[in-house]
Structure formats: structure tokens, C-alpha cells
Design brief:
Blueprint lengths: L7 H7 L1 H10 L7 H13 L3 E3 L25 E3 L28 E2 L3 H8 L7 H6 L5 E5 L2 E7 L4 E5 L5 E5 L3 E5 L10 E5 L7 E8 L6 E8 L4 H9 L11 E8 H9 L10
Length: 274
């Protein structure tokens, strides 16, 4: 039986019984964290899975014909439809348990620096395999309605290899992650640096370029900086080769409302500064 590929946050949200049931349901295949969420929502919304405890209780006298007793099952879900004689899996899906703040199922509504820090503490440094798959614990939060995931918290270490194979590592000056449901020039999410001044109401969009060729690479965004100078400082300090400032091809200040509209319209694939 294949294991369902989930992080600790997902297992906490759905419960181990739910994970076991899905492993049984998809035996022979592997499903990802996102597929787990989609499958669970589909099963519940289509009433393929319902909670017996939420169904109407049978009237007195509608139970076992011989004993006259009513069988009561509380909280245990059952699979609907199909063979009437089929036995429901003993570990059938249970409702998601309340998730801890900062997890995927319970993002923190960030209005203060402390809120962002709390979300950042949920992020865990991934193994190489987890980083490649993108399936590891992140800090989840909402800022002005935007869904954001923190991959590396402030003072956390990012590391990797450059195009030549040389290893690099850097201690992050601020929280770093991405805006969900967006796509940048690299076909990944639009990256974002989160400074402490979350109430500033402005976002700085940086056109990142190759420091050697000057060619456009992708956009990087900075939220929580008081001004452009601070945004440049946050960005430049996130590189270990001393070429952070050379990577800034242009920078555009946008009101938060304008930035959200920019993302909704698919912005992020092209340089923004004139």
C-alpha cells in the first residue's frame, strides 16, 4: 500500500484515521498534499462521505426488528452508495480536527509583526527531497486577504547551489515565502519578503535581473518595509554573494490594493518598472 504524501500539518488537520482511510482508498497510487485536500472536499461535498453522527436519528421502533433497539453511532463516518452489503472501512474518514494557528487549515490573520512571527515559527527546514517536492511544513497566514506561505522564517537559513554548482547559504533578514495562487516568470509562485511593518499599506515590486548579463529573471516582492530604501536593504541582505543590489533591475512601489489587483490579473511574469 502506498503512503499518502503529507506533512505533519496535514496529518494533524485530517487526523490519522482519515489518512489511513485514504491510503486504503487509493491503494496502488500516491497522492500529494494538495490532492488530499481536493479529494477530501470532493468526498464531503458530494456526500460520498457523511457523518452518521450528523444524520437524523431513527425514530423509536425503527431499529433492530427483533430486539426493538435503536443502533446509535456517534461521530463515525460511513461511505454512501455502492453495494448495500459492503462493509465500511473501520478507519473511515473523520471530520478534520481543529488545526493549530499558522497551519494550512488555520492561517493566521496577520495584522502585527507578532502575528507574522507566529506564522514564521511554523516553518521547518526541509530535507533536500522535501524541498524538491515542495511538501514540508510552512507558516500559513493571511495579509489583507492574500494567502501567503512562509518557507524560511526571519533568521532562518536558506541554502542551495548556483548554476555552476557552487554551494551557497544565507541567514534571512526577514521572513521569506510566496503568495499562493500566483505564478511568476519561473512558473513558481510569486516570492515575497515579509518585513515587520505589515501595516504600511505598500508593496515594493523588484524586477530581479541576472547580475552578470542584466537580463530579466523574475519579480520579487517586499511587504512590510517602511520605504524603498528599507525594501532594498531587506532584499539585498538575502544574498550571500554580495551582489544583491546588482540584481535590482528596477523597483516599483504599489499600494496594497493595487498590488492585489496586479496579481489577480496575472502580473508577475514580466518586469514591471519602465
Amino acid at each position: 500500500m502506498h503512503k499518502v504524501d503529507l506533512s505533519d500539518d496535514d496529518i494533524e488537520m485530517f487526523g490519522r484515521a482519515a489518512v489511513a482511510a485514504l491510503e486504503q482508498a487509493v491503494a496502488g497510487r500516491t497522492i500529494s498534499s494538495d490532492q488530499m485536500h481536493e479529494l477530501y472536499e470532493f468526498l464531503v461535498s458530494s456526500k460520498i462521505v457523511t457523518l452518521v453522527g450528523e444524520q437524523e436519528e431513527p425514530a423509536i421502533g425503527e431499529g433492530d426488528e427483533e430486539s426493538g433497539e435503536v443502533e446509535r453511532t456517534t461521530g463515525a463516518p460511513t461511505l454512501q452508495g455502492g453495494d448495500e452489503d459492503a462493509v465500511s472501512p473501520p478507519s473511515a474518514l473523520s471530520p478534520p480536527v481543529p488545526s493549530k494557528p499558522g497551519t494550512r487549515g488555520n492561517p493566521i490573520r496577520a495584522e502585527t509583526p507578532e502575528d507574522i512571527d507566529r506564522a514564521g515559527r511554523r516553518a521547518r527546514r526541509p530535507t533536500e527531497a522535501q524541498a524538491k517536492a515542495g511538501n514540508y511544513n510552512k507558516g500559513h497566514l493571511k495579509v489583507a486577504g492574500m494567502d501567503i506561505a512562509i518557507e524560511t522564517p526571519k533568521d532562518g537559513v536558506r541554502k542551495g547551489k548556483d548554476a555552476s554548482g557552487k554551494s551557497w547559504r544565507v541567514k534571512m533578514p526577514v521572513h521569506y515565502g510566496y503568495v499562493k495562487k500566483t505564478t511568476g516568470a519561473d512558473d513558481d509562485h510569486v516570492d515575497i519578503f515579509l518585513g515587520p511593518h505589515v501595516g504600511s499599506g505598500v508593496v515594493f515590486v523588484i524586477d530581479q535581473i541576472d547580475p552578470e548579463t542584466g537580463e530579466f529573471d523574475e519579480i520579487k516582492t517586499v511587504l512590510g518595509a517602511r520605504n524603498e530604501r528599507e525594501a532594498r536593504r531587506f532584499y539585498a541582505a538575502s544574498f550571500s554573494d554580495g551582489k544583491g543590489r546588482k540584481r535590482i533591475g528596477g523597483i516599483t512601489e504599489m499600494a496594497l490594493v493595487e498590488f492585489k489587483d496586479f496579481l489577480k490579473q496575472g502580473g508577475g511574469r514580466e518586469p514591471l518598472a519602465a
